[in-house]
Amino acid sequence: MRYGSPHGVDLAPDPKVTSQECWIPAGQTTTIHGVTIPGGRLLVGRKLPSGEAYSLEPSLINPDLPVNLKNPANHEDTLGYWPQYHRISPEGRAGYLHFLASDRDDPSVPMGFVFLYFYGLERRLLVDNPAGEVSSEEYEDLIGEIQRLLSVYSHSNSLKGYASRLLDYLAMAESSFDTPYTTPITRERQNGLPSQLLVDLGIFSASHQPIPADWAYAWVIQDPQFRLRTAAERCPDEFKALFTRRYRERHGEGIVVKPNKTLITLSYHPASPSISPAPVQTQLPNITGLKKPTRLLAELVDRSCDELDAFSRFVGKHPSRWDSIEALALLPSSLAGERKTEEVINLEARLKARLQAQDVARVPFTELAAGINLGSTAKPTAKSMASLAGFLEQAGIGFEPDYRYTGILPHQDNDYVTFEIQSTSQLPVSPEFSHAATVMRLAGFVLYGQSDTLTELHYDILTDYLDQVSQLSELERQHLQAYFRWELERKSTLAGMRKRVDAMDASQRTQLEQLLVRLASADGVVDTDEIKKLRRTASLLGHDPETLYSRIHSAMAEPTVVRQASEAATGFSIPAPEPDAAQAGMPRQPLNQDTIRQKRTETQKIAGELNSIFTPDSPAVPSHDSRDSQPTGKVPDTQRTGRQRLDPAILQSKREESDQVTGVLNDIFTPEDEMAAGVSDQVPDDPRPLPASPSQGTVDTSRPDQTDAGPGGLNTAHMALLEAVATHEQGLAVSEAETLAGELHLLLAGAIDTINEAAFELTDAPVLEEEGAVLVVDSEILEEMKE
User: Fold this and answer.
1) What's the distance, Cα to Cα, between the start and end of the chain in Å?
2) Comparing C-alpha atoms, which of 639, 661, 649 is closest to residue 613?
3) Contact between residue 533 and residue 526 where contact means Cβ atoms under 8 Å apart
4) Which listed site, 234, 255, 485, 594, has its alpha carbon 20 to 30 Å from 158?
5) Beta strands 280-285 and 263-266: pairing type?
6) What is the model's pTM?
7) What is the CA 772 to chain-centroid distance, rounded?
8) What angle do CA 778, 719, 693 make, to 5 degrees?
9) Nearest to residue 759, comparing CAs of 698, 709, 711, 707?
């Protein structure tokens, strides 16, 4: 091998030269070419062999080599990939000496200067220390200096990799390999597992101990065989929390890996090109190549990334909103619950205090809105309410309507029903839940407004029903019971129920109707409002409303269970009934003739009153009494004209009474009932045309402006009214709306109901509301209807 230099300096190594002769220890100052270098930790001298003894030590500063202090170089191009002091240019040496004379903490210097300095530290630790030339004090000082370089030049992945692996190798070279480290070692952007972590995993396996969750996490994020997706890299904190949680849920204390035959060999490939340290052989198994544990961990990595994908995408689009309620709503509920704000914590405390005194508690939306930083006038969103539900579940509190369960977002004026829970939701809900929720909604519809008067029998009937739905979880039953209580106070319609009912078979519809009848009659009284709603639900279910009455009588005739039967004697007996008179052979009682004469008299009196108003078109035939009392010489008007003259005052009175009766009947019978019963809007026996009158829900197909054209089946007239109100941001005066409705041949009250029915069908919320004397449109609901 030839050694030489263009500057006439002999560069051949001399085996007689030792490190001790050239080493400048820490704290000692030296001067080279007029440059004063404090701090030490340098090799200065001539002909020092490298670690492999065949070439010069690359970090050795030879004071005989020229240095161009007038033009120092401070760029990488003058140093090369593996810089060596005796091979760089005089300008490069000048720049390096200036670096050594500084505090060596400028992140902007060429990394070649840092590596050239690092070579000397490597040689001292890997070559001179095994030879016994380094004291324990100096050893600790050198370790501290490498750690300082890691912190200063952390932007260099190359230096981080070499320095981190060197520290791991040195630590393991002195290890007893019998006790794992107190915490798992993690190194960012390291190619391969840290030696300490590899040894820890081997110790767990050799001693048949489970691998704890934190060590499993450190393994998967540093082993290249595990594919970490964007979600894990963009959201490292969330990924760690979720992965360790899922690992404990599935594997408890951890996976126990049986030792394999492949042993761990520790080695280090130095940054210096002239050092080859000896590998360290251990007796610990290297489990990182086994298929079973790596497969189990890979499954958890993929599952955790899947659960974080939505949150990761949101954070990628909105980095500054990573802690917003919208972002937290995309996290798994277990993680969202760990990020409770002070407002949510205070809300939990208030709700728990209420639930200590009662099973359920009604809470205004404004109080819940404080937990998600919404104003009292802001509307709840599906994401914000789902996130809040996840938060409160962690505290053992559930509420309805819960959008995750029933898919309902109530109005700001509505209350929520809160209750205590013992478990967290397993979403999505079971298929049986949707059917049971339909039953609860219809039960609340029939019993609306009776929450303060319901008896235990009402709740027992619903509890029995839910107990028969075997696939429901206990938490789902709690949500359904709370949802029923909420529906009791919500003035709902049957909008949106058609599709749900259509999914039921005939037996389910019959059972549902029987359940509703039992609930309505549970208190022994079925009032007019309940009958009206039962008729509507019967029509919805495809049943004849007229059969309801027999069902109601049957339900009310069922015996009430006072006490379940028992073989044990109670000391009481039911007395025998009195013998029936007919069965005892007693003769039948004769009819009372006085009663019969009284009924006949009342009938004749009523007939006389009717005759005073209406007579047939033909000449009247007077009765015996009237003929006897008729004055002679005067012909009545009826005989001259052939028709009875009507009394206008009496006729008007009868009309008013008829209108009152019609109003009462309309409260009981719905249009659906009339159609089911075959009632027509026209009377075929009367040839006279009926006067035209606009009515609620009536569509005249002869008018081009009455055809279906809008969402939810709204015709153009109703859509025109809705759009006209929507153009007024502050709302349209009711008087103006009535005028507009008249021009469209609509009644305003009926039109509002029709429009809101369509809105409920599509969004479960009204789109038109009256605020004082102003009619306003909910723009968000309108937009949702048009989607």
Assistant:
1) 82
2) 649
3) no
4) 234
5) antiparallel
6) 0.52
7) 36
8) 120
9) 711
Peptide bond before residue 431 is cis, with ω within 30 degrees of 0: no
Under 8 Å between Cβ of 283 and 259 = no
Dig out the tokens for 206 from the structure: 């050799």
Pairs from 96-102 (Cβ < 8 Å, separation ≥ 24): 97/32, 97/33, 97/35, 97/37, 97/61, 97/67, 97/69, 98/35, 98/72, 100/35, 100/37, 100/39, 100/42, 101/35, 101/36, 101/37, 101/38
Residue of 105, 285, 283, 125 lying closest to 198 (CA atoms):
285
Residue whose pair of structure tokens reads 């450190």 in the numeric block: 218
CB count in 10 Å sphere of residue 219: 24
The per-residue pLDDT for range 423-460, each reduced to its tens digit, is 878 888 988 999 999 999 999 999 999 988 999 999 99
Q: Which helix (H) or strand (E) holds 418?
A: strand 415-420
Which of helix, strand or coil describes residue 355? helix
User: Closest Cα to residue 315, out of 231, 227, 221, 228?
Assistant: 231
Q: Amino acid letter at 761? A: E
Nearest to 19 by CA among 131, 96, 167, 101: 131
Q: Tokens standing for 734?
A: 């009711």
Tell me the C-alpha distance between 592 and 589, whole Å.
9
Q: Quick count: other Cβ atoms within 10 Å of Cβ 41?
A: 21
Contact between 287 and 296 (Cβ < 8 Å): no
Token output for 612 = 């005073």
Q: DSSP readout, 263-306?
A: EEEE----SSTT--PPPEEEEEE-GGG-HHHHHHHHHHHHHHHH
- How far is the C-alpha of 210 from the C-alpha of 252, rounded, in Å? 9
Q: Structure tokens of 705?
A: 């402006």
Quick: pLDDT tens for 485-533: 999 998 777 877 888 888 899 999 999 999 999 999 998 889 988 998 8
Residue 632 and residue 658 in contact, taking contact as beta carbons nearer than 8 Å: no
Helical residues (DSSP H) of 376-496, grouped into ranges: 382-394, 403-406, 431-446, 456-468, 474-488
